């Protein structure tokens, strides 16, 4: 697709970047209306310069509930691409009412149990930055978020499309947060982030833009707990729609009220023969591409493609395989076998973080009450000693080999 854009001189533009980050759609659209509220949300009274060049564009990732009107000098052709999804907060009188409508009493009780277990074992805070954040804290949070995202996608074994654009995100969101056009939601343990989301805001709509969590805390369902906290914050701050954007995930399917298609818009100048020719060529190629994608999904080839992509990514990143371990009870007196005490921030300790978090999830112990020891004469074995519970953890050879590479 990029080769086609270069050959035809088509200039691709990201609607999310133009509209939500810059709030400037010139020279592409002079009006945007929300089909759901039937309200106009953007207007530009500027005139197109006669010297505007290039004369044809491709604007992508336009949420399908927006109606876009190009400047009168341009003609627009649209193609549906991938699905997005919305939560319509105004359909429910309150956050509690939304939860009752979306989840059974058993599911709601499970969310409370997971949150209680998390707070029982860790010093947890959930903070929102919207309207004010210092540059030093912002830089620190974004660096930690980037590392979290890298580790999350290494675990999944797939490439992350956001990381190549991280410098842009880092430059952009500081001013957006301080002008209340974005917010950061952070769940932290002892002031260290373990779940994170960056969200754009336009009018009364919240856009879930970037999200990740510490993979070592997977058993606590941090992604869902963070999302529920964000929804509660949204109600308290007058948000009417929560756009979850792209991606089909289980947690989304439980919450969404409406699905839509993202739109690609091909714009070309009406008076330019070259623009008309290349604009229609671009439209035809994109139209055929997405019909091919839909055909692949229909015959399940997309799943094969994802499996092959995951396999290829993991082949190239073998040294980053997840920590693998087994856990067991220690019989007899543990004091006789204890070696040195291990700190979590040591070279060895970082490989014991996930086993420790899993141990805390199962036992309910508090992290500050658990000591970690090596076990004498067993170089792959370590002991977690809490107030009420203890377990031995045996790291596999591959995990240790990563450590000593």
SSE arrangement:
Blueprint: H1 2-8, E1 11-14, H2 15-22, E2 29-34, E3 39-43, E4 56-63, E5 66-70, E6 74-88, H3 95-102, H4 105-121, E7 124-129, H5 135-156, H6 166-178, E8 182-189, E9 192-202, E10 205-213, H7 222-236, E11 241-246, H8 250-255, E12 258-269, H9 273-298, H10 301-316, E13 325-328, E14 338-341, H11 353-363, E15 371-375, E16 378-385, E17 390-395, H12 397-404
Parallel strand pairs: 1-4, 10-11
Antiparallel strand pairs: 2-3, 2-5, 4-12, 6-11, 6-12, 7-8, 8-9, 9-10, 13-17, 14-15, 15-16, 16-17
Keywords: Transferase
Protein name: GNAT family N-acetyltransferase
Pfam family, one: Acetyltransf_6
Q: Which features would summarize this protein structure in a list?
A:
transferase; transferase activity; nine-stranded mixed sheet; 405 residues; alpha+beta; 12 helices; 3 domains; GNAT family N-acetyltransferase; Aminopeptidase; Acyl_CoA_acyltransferase
What this model shows, in words?
This protein is of the alpha+beta class. It folds into three domains: about 1-80 and about 260-305, no CATH class; about 85-260, Aminopeptidase (3-Layer(aba) Sandwich), CATH 3.40.630; about 325-405, no CATH class. It contains twelve helices and 17 strands. The protein has helices spanning about 1-10, 15-20, 95-100, 105-120, 135-155, 165-180, 220-235, 250-255, 275-300, 300-315, 355-365, 395-405, and strands at about 10-15, 30-35, 40-45, 55-65, 65-70, 75-90, 125-130, 180-190, 190-200, 205-215, 240-245, 260-270, 325-330, 340, 370-375, 380-385, 390-395. The strands form three sheets. Strands 1-4-12-6-11-10-9-8-7 form a nine-stranded mixed beta sheet, with helices on both faces. The longest helix has 26 residues, at about 275-300. The two termini are about 40 Å apart. The mean pLDDT is about 85. Keywords: Transferase. One of its GO terms (molecular function) is transferase activity.
């Amino acid at each position: 697709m990029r080769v086609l854009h270069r050959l035809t001189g088509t200039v691709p533009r990201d609607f999310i970047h133009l509209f939500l980050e810059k709030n400037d759609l010139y020279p592409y659209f002079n009006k945007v209306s929300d089909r759901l509220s039937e309200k106009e949300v953007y207007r530009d009274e500027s005139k197109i310069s006669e010297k505007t060049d290039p004369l044809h564009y491709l604007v992508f990732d336009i949420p399908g509930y927006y109606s876009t009107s190009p400047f009168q000098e341009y003609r627009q052709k649209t193609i549906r691409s991938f699905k997005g999804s919305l939560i319509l907060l105004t359909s429910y009188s309150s956050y509690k009412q939304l939860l009752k409508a979306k989840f059974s009493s058993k599911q709601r009780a499970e969310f409370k149990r997971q949150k209680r277990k998390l707070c029982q074992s860790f010093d947890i805070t959930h903070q929102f930055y919207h309207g004010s954040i210092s540059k030093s804290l912002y830089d620190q949070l974004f660096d930690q978020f980037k590392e979290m995202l890298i580790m999350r996608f290494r675990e999944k074994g797939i490439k992350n499309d956001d990381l190549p654009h991280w410098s842009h995100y880092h430059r952009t969101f500081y001013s957006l947060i301080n002008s209340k056009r974005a917010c950061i939601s952070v769940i932290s343990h002892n002031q260290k982030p373990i779940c994170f989301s960056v969200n754009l805001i336009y009018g009364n709509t919240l856009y879930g833009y970037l999200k990740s969590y510490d993979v070592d805390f997977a058993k606590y369902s941090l992604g869902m707990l963070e999302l529920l906290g964000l929804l509660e914050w949204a109600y308290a701050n007058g948000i009417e729609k929560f756009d979850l954007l792209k991606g089909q995930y289980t947690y989304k399917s439980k919450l969404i009220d409406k699905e839509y298609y993202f739109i690609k818009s091909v714009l070309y100048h009406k008076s330019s023969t070259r623009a008309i020719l290349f604009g229609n060529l671009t439209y035809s190629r994109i139209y055929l591409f997405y019909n091919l994608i839909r055909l692949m999904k229909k015959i399940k080839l997309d799943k094969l493609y994802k499996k092959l992509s995951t396999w290829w990514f993991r082949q190239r990143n073998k040294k980053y395989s997840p920590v693998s371990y087994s856990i067991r009870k220690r019989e007899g007196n543990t004091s006789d076998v204890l070696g040195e005490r291990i700190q979590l921030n040591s070279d060895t300790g970082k490989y014991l973080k996930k086993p420790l978090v899993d141990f805390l999830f199962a036992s309910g112990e508090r992290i500050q009450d658990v000591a970690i020891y090596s076990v004498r004469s067993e170089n792959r074995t370590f002991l977690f000693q809490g107030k009420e519970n203890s377990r031995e953890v045996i790291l596999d050879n591959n995990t240790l080999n990563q450590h000593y590479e």
